[in-house]
Amino acid sequence: MSRKKESLGIQRVASVHLFVRDLERIRDWHVKCLDFAEIAVSTAAFEAEHRARASVVEAGGARFVFMEPLGSQGESFRWLAKHPEGIGRIVFDVTDAERTFRLLCDRGGTPMTGLERRIVEGGEVIWFDITTAFGDTLFRFVQHAGATPIMPDLVRHDRAIGGKNRFGVQSVDHITSNFLTLKPAILWLEHVMGLERYWGVEFHTQDVKKGGGGEGSGLKSVVMWDPESGVKFANNEPAAPSFKASQIFKFCEDHRGPGMQHLALTMADLVGGVRGMRELGVQFMPTPGAYYDRLPERLKEMGINQIEEDIDALRRLEILVDGTSPKQYLLQIFMREAATMFKDPQAGPVFLELIERKGDKGFGAGNFRALFESIESQQQSNKRK
After folding, report:
1. Cα separation of 292 and 38, whole Å?
2. Nearest-10 Cα torsion for 252, 256, 259, 263
3. Which of 158, 170, 101 is nearest to 129 (CA)?
4. Whole-number pLDDT of residue 210
5. Which CATH number is 169-384 given?
6. Sign of CA dihedral 85, 73, 27, 16
7. pTM value?
């Protein structure tokens, strides 16, 4: 058994950088449909340095930085030459960037930069980037005082533009990535990042289908976490038989390599939030009606005495329920992938999950299969069209 490693001093997921081909499309969708607010945009200095224009949107503690290439150079252009739109960088707030840098180097991490220092919004910011086992997605570690600053050479609006976060987005709960082979990523998270195993599941949809016949698909998933901050990474690989039928394999093909499939955002009121988002045209993964037919029985099996929500309301909104104790459970739902939402393959297979934790700190093990079967059903439907 490996000895517990010294913490990197991660505090939270500060922001997520997405490289996009259509900045207005993704920004307007977040502002108009998810009620995020645009808080900053790129300056001429930023655009000259990064060869990209940028928009920063925020709701609660969730912040996204969208970057669209300008011309045929720069980080976002090179990333999009290899992939559809997606997550190119995860940014973490840390207590001591120099210490984090030293720990990662000592453990075999690969820095892409040295320690950078800048004055941003009146205070000193120290940061650095490293490569990861998540395909072409980088990690950035940032030390600062006070509230999380925006990136250098971005300028804040005098007043945030757009939404008011009326749907109650709170923060990033976890990040999910897909691989054709899982072990290298798990070893990297353990030995370089110093994370610990939190949860795991293996299943195949064939095991619930009568007759089998080699149909269906499956996965193996391992969740790693940082106990101090609570930051979690869910990591998936396809399972045989029908390895290539797995939605994990399909993601890797559509994304053109391993990478981050979705972000989960915590919500204050998932039922109200989903209802409002649906009214604005947000599309969610469908859930089979049989899921709700069996939900009262499943709740008893999980030991959950009762839930506050009406099951008919959950059925209408297609919200999932899971838990492990009498009074603790969670609600979750998954949006459709961007390529489907925007009817554009280059928008990519990335999507958002929304989750409300009612005391349960788990990962929705029972719902994992429901999501997988839903995506599998959607893929079969698309083939028939």
Report:
1. 37
2. -80
3. 101
4. 44
5. 3.10.180.10
6. positive
7. 0.92
CATH class of 10-162: alpha beta
Q: How many CA atoms lie within 13 A of 112 on its CB side?
A: 14
Burial class (CB in 10 A: 0-12, 13-18, 19+), 297: exposed
At 346, is the secondary structure helix, strand, or coil? helix
| Token pair for 99 | 């210490």
133: which 2 tokens?
């086992």
Q: What is the mean pLDDT of residues 154-170?
A: 97
Q: In whole angstroms, what is the distance from residue 353 CA to residue 376 CA?
A: 17
Q: Could you tell me the strand order of the sheet in which 86-94 lies?
A: 116-120, 123-130, 138-143, 86-94, 10-19, 62-69, 52-59, 37-42, 154-162
What are the backbone dihedrals phi and psi of residue 352, each rounded to the nearest 5 degrees, phi first?
-115, 145
Residues of the chain with CATH 3.10.180.10: 10-162, 169-384
**Cis ω on the peptide bond leading into residue 241 (within 30° of 0)?**
yes
Q: Is the pLDDT of residue 325 over 90?
A: no
Q: What local confidence, expressed as pLDDT, does residue 361 receive?
A: 82
**CA 161/CA 272 separation, integer angstroms:** 23
161/269 Cα distance (integer angstroms): 23
Is residue 100 within 8 Å of 273, Cβ to Cβ?
no
Distance CA 22, CA 93 (A): 28
DSSP-assigned beta bridge partners for residue 232: 174, 225
Length of the chain: 385
Please tell me the predicted confidence (pLDDT) of residue 157: 97
Look up residue 214 and give its two tokens. 């080699």
Comparing CA positions, the residue from 341, 333, 337, 285 lying closest to residue 309 is 333
- DSSP of 2-35: PPPPPP--EEEEEEEEEE-S-HHHHHHHHHHHS-
